[in-house]
Structure prediction request, 135 residues.
Amino acid sequence: MKIAMNEKITDAGYDNLIYDVNPKAEVMTVTFRKEASAEATYKRGCVLALSTGTGADGKYVALGTTEVGSETLTANAILCGDVTVGTDADVTVLAYRTGHFNENALSFAGEYTFTAADKEALRDVGILISESVEY
Prediction:
């Protein structure tokens, strides 16, 4: 069998998520809470919120998810890759804990409006958000 050494294997894609290499994008594993009613798929760049407060479970959900009980959901990380979350069990995913990201490449649960308070919460944990133009 012959292999052509100049054969094209794949196209390198650019998703416009990373704005700059400073601060360095660091990755961590987080527990993404299972869905309450139906399976959902979240894309790379989805902003994750950490469940805190008196009714918190310390797990992550997509920002824009409805709070349950007395929990508070605060923007805290950005999803590294696409993930499908079912209703049976929580899922361990990779998320960026720091980095500099493009605002127009971020996504949320539902029709959520990204606020200045969300940007500030992300900045507090080392994630910077900037606006950019797609090329």
About this structure: Residues 116-124 form the longest helix (9 residues). The beta strands are 18-20, 26-32, 40-42, 47-53, 60-62, 71-79, 83-85, 91-102, 127-130. The chain has one helix and nine strands. The chain has a mean pLDDT of 92.
